[in-house]
Amino acid sequence: xxxxIPIKIDDPEEIDWxxxxxxxxxxxxxxxxxxxxxxxxxxxxxxxxGYHEEFISKLILDKEDTVLDLGCGNGIITIPIAKKxxxxxxxxxxxxxxxxxxxxAKEENVNNIKTVKADLSKIRTKDxxxxxxxxxxxxxxRVKNIQELVANINEIANKYVFISIYGINNWKIEKExxxxxxxxxxxxxxxxxxxxxxxxxxxxxxxxNLTMNHHREYENLDDFFKRRxxxxxxxxxxxxxxxxxxxxxxxxxxxxxxxxxxEKDIMDWVLVWWKVD
Length: 277
Description:
The protein is an alpha/beta fold.
């Protein structure tokens, strides 16, 4: 493991979940993703399996609500929500994502969206004001200081907060490969970390599994490495070749489109939400 702490915890209440969240993020800090590069194909990735419809169906929204969408991406969640509410402020750090969102909104005659280029982890009330509902769809798993983020979100939200995050059934392919070469695989923090962080902060969240029984698909191995969380820099040249051989042995070809897939590589997302006091 990347971090092993030789301490004995007699009382579960002593566990500092925010600390362990941060350690998980630190283990992934050297894995960069260029969201401007991903943006053109992100819409195809995002709609796979009907995630956006499932997520939106769980939201509690009123036609007079104002919504803050943190990590809005190309607007696959933002635009449908804007059609149901008074307004949406959409925040993302990628110029290309926001450009695509603006274009799609104009094409669909949606004019109640304000886009803001910013790091969602640094957003404060002074930047965006308050909103009735704050959502963060699949966007917080790279945020290091989770308690600070939650505190800021809670200050912004008047009614509800909805966050989707990894469930425990992601990364099966990665884990199996790393086990085959006797290396530990460090995944991003799952919903259990967020759940316990919220409890430590005095927030009692609701937790729902989003029904996503759909495997991911990739155009080729380069596409696989680009979209997944593997850090090739930590592998030797021989291990990278082993990884390619391993993937070639387990990935199948979808005869309908030629894409690569594996049934174990499912999308597991969990919705964590709460009513703001």
